[in-house]
Amino acid sequence: MVKSKQIKRIGLLTGGGDCPGLNAVIRGVAKPAHDHGLTVLGIQDGFEGLVEGKAVELYNKDVSGILSQGGSILGSSNKGDPFHWPEDIGDEIQILDRSKKALKNYEAWNLDAIIAIGGDGTMHISNKLAEMGMNIVGVPKTIDNDLEATDQTFGHDSAVFVVSEALDRLHTTASTHHRVMVIEVMGRYAGWIALNGGLAGGADIILLPEFPFNWDVVYDKVEQRSMQGKRFSIVCVAEGAKAQNEEMVVKAKDIKRTDPIQLGGIAEHVSKMISDNTKIETRYTVLGHLQRGGSPTPYDRILSTRFGTYAINLAMNKMFGRMVALKGSEITSVKIEEAIKRQKLVTTENQSVHSALQVGASFGVEEMDHNVVRWIGAY
Ligand code: F6P
């Protein structure tokens, strides 16, 4: 039984890096909220808006026609952590705690709850704000799909779709010019985008942060293919992948971000190493933010809508401190503090890893590639 009378005003924000499906969640929250007579305050630019007092009321017309739109009508930021607030003081940047300011605005706006749509970082912040007394419901988003508590985050499917399409395009030019094509995909410290994108696009070599690779295995794979008359290879490398005994390739550091590290550059490195060591011509492509932009796939539109409507139901039932989650085909919820305990990473036990091996892909790891026979008929 929905106790709608008890909740009157909710705040809604999108935090961290954007991804397709954010607007579908906003719509999924706001439409039922309006139908129950609730006021929905759209907090702008994630937690930055909560600290700086930037918010606008969202009316029904504002959330109409946004289901298929990429990005977020509320804006987002990965620099607005109230507990890690960067402030320019003279020539230096100081990191301050602005959480009390956030609480003040929450109270001044008379909010009964905030629905925070975001990834790992947003959930960590939400948990700390909940400890300060705010009523929070979380909705898990990220193209990286690295939240343990949900089988899938929205945004991931759309990113994988982009990778898969890019790999199809790279295949035709790679085979025409007999080249090795290396594509760098996002995912931070998790390899889900590279694994699922590589599987969908038929990559010959998939390099993940979870499995540090051996250069010789990579060269052998490319050369073997060449000797078999397959005069091209496609390498799908996650931005966080690294060779054994090497570090991740970091593009830049920015202390204003909750996680200061900006990854990038591994594709160029892999491409150069392959061309230097096999004498086969290589090229690389960095897919970058194309993976985060544009319309959500139908799968993500459905998941986002289901997440959004479930989240407003949680809020109306005063089930705070919880994050919406997908378990199998059902939507449910978990405690935010549980949801942030572990990151979801690819393991050697993952069935998609076994499938990739069985169709001939290499992970650049000798033991895994050579043990492929173990997975044939294993289930
Ligand atoms: O977490 C989503 C993500 O796209 C990661 O895959 C990537 O490492 C990061 O954000 C990039 O962040 P930014 O847009 O701030 O460069």
Describe this structure in words.
The chain is of the alpha/beta class. The chain folds into 2 domains: about 10-155 and about 295-340, 3-Layer(aba) Sandwich (Rossmann fold), CATH 3.40.50; about 160-290 and about 345-375, Phosphofructokinase domain (Rossmann fold, 3-Layer(aba) Sandwich). Helix content is about 35%, strand content about 20%. The protein has 12 helices and 15 strands. A 7-stranded mixed sheet has the order 3-2-1-6-7-14-15, sandwiched between helices. Strand 6, helix 4 (about 120-130) and strand 7 form a beta-alpha-beta unit. The longest helix has 22 residues, at about 155-175. It is elongated, with a radius of gyration of 22 Å. The model has no long low-confidence stretch (mean pLDDT about 95).
Short synopsis of the structure:
The chain is of the alpha/beta class and 379 residues long.
Into which percentage range does the β-strand content fall?
15-25%
- Overall pLDDT: 95
SSE class = alpha/beta
Q: Give the C-alpha Rg.
A: 22 Å
Which spans have pLDDT < 50 for at least 5 consecutive residues?
A: none
Q: What separation lies between the terminal Cα atoms?
A: 43 Å
CATH architecture of the largest domain: 3-Layer(aba) Sandwich
In total, the number of strands is: 15
Provide the succession of SSEs. EHEHEEEHEHEHEHEHEEEHEHEEHHH
Report the top-level CATH class of the largest domain: Alpha Beta
**Largest β-sheet summary:** 7 strands, mixed
Number of domains: 2
Small molecules bound in the structure, each named once: 6-O-phosphono-beta-D-fructofuranose
Helix content: 25-40%
Number of helices: 12
The CATH topology assignment of the largest domain is Rossmann fold
Strand order of the largest sheet: 3-2-1-6-7-14-15
**Overall 3D form:** elongated
- Oligomer status: single chain
